[in-house]
Task: inverse folding
């Protein structure tokens, strides 16, 4: 039911108002309050999380059907907010130590998070575009926030140019879909396309071409092959906490949007879009597992690792079933903890006050910093899919959904690429435990990093003991999406 009740968008309204207040306060107080603004930004994210988790939100459609609130949207928003909160928390001490304390960074992250929540609740191609651009415009700026740094400026410019190209592709695809169906509303699109399928009519070629363009644009946002070209350079050039943010929260929002778009309005065209997703998943898994092998910079390695992980998540989407979407939701939930934990370790790699990013800099870490070596080992084993860590269950649910949907070959290739990918994860463990120590890292690492590492490590290790709430929540979210 469509309603004008603004309380349905209370978390988004709260984020928008809070970001505006923080921006005005920072503009008047100056960069000397950057740490305080960052702490307030984390609090704002926490309040938005609480409004969804503890609030009694009405579910349905709002703003003329442009905005939808259901169990799926609420679950994915909680995951995105968790990743955003970790990202802002990890930024605070880094910007102070690097002499780049700017209050704009956490405010831009809050605005990007607002865009993510709007994307997740999009129920129209127009609201989809607005949410995507709100997120992207903020990310363009923080990618190039270190204007005096050549690599950061290059990363921001490359991301902006290619992002503008993907936005053009998205608009072109949306215009073609509108031209051949007469609507941009998801529910009406679903009805029109279902009517074609019920009447045994083949979808018009223009509609399928429009869908391909939309899929290509969203594939860029999640850095899936063959639209991944920006990822390694942007990950390496952007400040490390910004890279951590890029690799988690925006991908959760984009892939949540992807799943809603393909499962709801275009659900009847599953035979058409399934071919696209299978190809993208295969290419992402293969490239992610092979290209990372020769990397010596750990941030570039994580860039290719994230490409591979998106490929695994898309295996669940390729299944085109409720179980597949459930697997995708579980995978992205686990992924953000693995990713944030790993980047917390990378952010702690400081020698004599300077950041180091080389894999060789981890030599002998087990002797100089055994606790951090153990934490990083846990994250590497989890990403490799070693049981009983959470990463094993993440891959298991998506591969099981693919097999149940008849995509056995895709699942087998996924398992093989996972085995190949284990090589570079295990190489990091070998460097830490079997090579002679290099210079030790600076201590202490800070309360923020300690908290992120503790929470992420506990989640990965003890997931098997408290997996029921995650599994049940993902099942409810997937059923809500398919019920719609």
Result:
């Amino acid at each position: 039911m469509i309603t004008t009740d603004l309380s349905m968008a209370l978390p988004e309204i709260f984020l928008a108002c809070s970001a505006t207040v923080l921006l005005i306060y920072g503009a008047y107080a100056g960069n000397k309050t950057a740490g305080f603004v960052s702490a307030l930004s984390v609090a704002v994210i926490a309040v938005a999380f609480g409004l969804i988790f503890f609030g009694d939100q009405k579910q349905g459609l709002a703003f003329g059907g442009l905005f939808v609130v259901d169990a799926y949207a609420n679950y994915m928003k909680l995951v995105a907010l968790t990743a955003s909160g970790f990202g802002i928390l990890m930024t605070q001490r880094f910007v102070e130590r690097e002499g780049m304390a700017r209050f704009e960074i956490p405010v831009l992250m809050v605005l990007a998070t607002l865009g993510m929540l709007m994307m997740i609740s999009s129920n129209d191609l127009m609201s989809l575009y607005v949410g995507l651009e709100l997120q992207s415009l903020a990310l363009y700026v923080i990618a190039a926030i270190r204007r005096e740094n050549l690599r950061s400026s290059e990363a921001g410019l490359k991301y902006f140019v290619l992002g503008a190209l993907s936005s053009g592709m998205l608009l072109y695809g949306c215009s073609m879909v509108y031209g051949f169906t007469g609507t941009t509303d998801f529910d009406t699109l679903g009805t029109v396309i279902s009517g074609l399928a019920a009447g045994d009519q083949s979808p018009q070629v223009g509609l399928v071409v429009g869908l391909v363009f939309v899929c290509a644009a969203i594939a860029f946002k999640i850095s899936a092959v063959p639209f991944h070209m920006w990822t390694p350079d942007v990950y390496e050039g952007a400040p490390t906490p910004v890279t951590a943010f890029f690799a988690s929260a925006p991908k959760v929002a984009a892939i949540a949007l992807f799943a809603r778009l393909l499962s709801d309005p275009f659900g009847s065209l599953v035979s058409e879009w399934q071919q696209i997703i299978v190809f993208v998943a295969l290419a992402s898994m293969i490239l992610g597992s092979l290209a990372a092998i020769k990397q010596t910079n750990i941030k570039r390695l994580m860039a290719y690792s994230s490409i591979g992980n998106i490929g695994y998540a898309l295996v669940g989407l390729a299944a085109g079933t409720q179980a597949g979407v459930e697997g995708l939701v579980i995978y992205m939930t686990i992924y953000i903890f693995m990713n944030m934990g790993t980047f917390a370790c990378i952010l702690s790699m400081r020698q004599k006050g300077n950041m180091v990013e080389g894999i060789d800099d981890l030599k002998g870490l087990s002797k100089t910093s055994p606790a951090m070596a153990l934490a990083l080992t846990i994250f590497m084993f989890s990403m490799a899919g070693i049981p009983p860590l959470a990463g094993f269950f993440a891959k298991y649910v998506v591969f099981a959904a693919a097999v149940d949907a008849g995509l056995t070959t895709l699942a087998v290739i996924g398992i093989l690429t996972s085995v190949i990918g284990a090589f570079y994860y295990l190489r990091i463990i070998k460097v830490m435990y079997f090579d002679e120590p290099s210079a030790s890292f600076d201590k202490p690492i800070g309360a923020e990093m300690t908290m992120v590492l503790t929470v992420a490590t506990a989640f990965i290790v003890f997931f098997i003991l408290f997996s029921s709430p995650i599994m049940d929540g993902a099942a409810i979210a997937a059923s809500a999406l398919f019920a719609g």
